[in-house]
Amino acid sequence: MQAVIVVGVPGAGKSTVVDKIAKLCKEYTLVNVGDMMLEVGKKKGYLTEKDNHDTMRGRSNEERQELIREVFNEIAKMKGDVIIDTHASISKHGRFMPGLPGDVISGLKDSLKGVICIDAPTESIILRRERDTTRQRDVDSIEMIDMQRMINVSMVSAIAQRYDAPLYVLFNQENMQEESAMRFKRYIDNAFKGTPNENMHK
After folding, report:
1. For residue 4, what are the β-bridge partners?
2. Strand, helix or coil for residue 7
3. CA 164 → CA 3, 75, 188, distances in Å?
4. Are 38 and 53 in contact (CB under 8 A)?
5. Which end of the chain is more exposed for a tag (fewer CB within 10 A), N or C?
6. CA–CA separation, 85 vs 53, rounded Å?
7. Radius of gyration in angstroms for the set of CA atoms belonging to the chain, rounded to a whole number
8. Backbone phi, then psi, for 96, in 5-degree steps?
9. For 142-193, what is each residue's pLDDT tens digit?
10. Cα distance between the two ends of the chain
11. Around Cβ 61, how many Cβ atoms within 10 Å?
12. Which of 135, 118, 131, 130 is nearest to 176 (CA)?
């Protein structure tokens, strides 16, 4: 098993980019940590059928971390090349909580081939959140979004350094989703297969 972790603040366009490539590249298995946490939480009785990604953020840190650990235990058993769609940090009412506890990552230390941080201009993040009526997110100030973007990069940088994994940063500009998706594919191919990277950032 080989794994690449993909993170991004809500509104950076992470899921759009990841889903687009996952549909095109069947050789990779995509797992969404939030979806798996919901499934495990409902089985354990922590969550109800009415819970979703947004209500789950309001759960206690202890419950969240137990769910994250269970999910990553399942991921560690998977075969092949796995793209892990998750969050480096979780923001709720001005507090930031780690989305990837250290002991969770340690279970992947021999399998982790790269970490990809999908980022976007703060103004684009705000616009995307406003357009997405399917989610119930906090209304964050520009300063708070800027702070979470910095926290995300800090957290994934620490993970990459600790486990000697390459860190890729993909800046997902507004109206450039196709270009971002293709760049993401080059990053994924480079992480899993070590493909030449001369044109990786184009």
Report:
1. 83, 114
2. strand
3. 13, 20, 17
4. yes
5. C
6. 13
7. 16
8. -115, 130
9. 898 999 999 999 999 999 999 999 999 999 988 888 899 999 999 999 999 9
10. 29
11. 13
12. 118
b/e string for 140-166 if b means 16 or more Cβ within 10 A? beeeebebbbebbbebbebbbeebebe
Neighbours of 190 (CB within 10 A): 18
* Overall fold of domain 2-32+82-193: Rossmann fold (3.40.50)
**Global pTM exceeds 0.70:** yes
Dihedral sign from CA coordinates of 83, 84, 88, 93: positive
Listed in sequence order, the residues at least 6 apart from 201 whose beta carbon sits closer than 8 Å to its beta carbon are 183
Amino acid at 118: I
Amino acid at position 4, single letter: V
SS3 label, residue 108: coil
Q: How many Å apart are CA 48 and CA 162, to the nearest integer?
A: 37
On whether the CB atoms of residues 6 and 83 are closer than 8 A, the answer is: yes
Q: Which of 121, 152, 189 is nearest to 8 (CA)?
A: 152
